[in-house]
Amino acid sequence: MKLCEICGNPIPENSRQCPYCQQLQSGEKKGHPGESIRTINLEAGKPTVEEALIRLERELNFAKSAGVLLIRIIHGYGSSGVGGDIRNACQRYLREAYQKGNIKRFIPGELLRISTKQGHVILTRYPELKNDKKNRGITIIEL
Questions:
Q1: Residue spans of beta strands (DSSP E) within 1-143
Q2: Domains of the chain, residue spans
Q3: pLDDT interval class at 107 (50, 70, 90)
Q4: Whole-model pTM?
Q5: What CA–CA distances, in Å, run from 10 to 58, 122, 142?
Q6: CA-to-CA separations, 97 to 56, 67, 80, 115, 132, in angstroms, rounded
Q7: Which fold does the domain 30-142 belong to in CATH?
Q8: Band of pLDDT at residue 26, cut at 50, 70 and 90
Q9: What are the residue ranges of helices labelled H in 20-116?
Q10: Quick one: DSSP state of residue 133?
Q11: Which secondary-structure segment (H or E) carries 121?
């Protein structure tokens, strides 16, 4: 088994398309235990808020068991310009997960910049996130 490059779900090793998010795969081996950053696209398939939260919880548990250190959640920002329902619900869920000690931290994309304390810590540890700076459509989770 390998993991989808887009959503992180397990897919057959020889599969060229993910059955969950329908995205084509590059063919590179990814998703091995101990990977440092996993990207999960919660927008794929246009789920309801409830479906996205169920998937987020499942993916967090799967990533923890696989030894993933950081998750990049793609939730979108919403067409209203004030943040979408999935984004807002994910951040509420992550706030609770943080308070319960289930995650180390989470950083909304708009706070992912070197000038914020959390952003500085994460960008220093994971410089490959530099292209994600100030992106309101993502949230970074440190496990």
A1: 2-3, 10-11, 37-41, 70-74, 105-108, 138-142
A2: 30-142
A3: very high
A4: 0.71
A5: 12, 27, 21
A6: 11, 18, 27, 25, 23
A7: Ribosomal Protein S8; Chain: A, domain 1 (3.30.1370)
A8: low
A9: 49-66, 85-99
A10: T
A11: helix 117-125
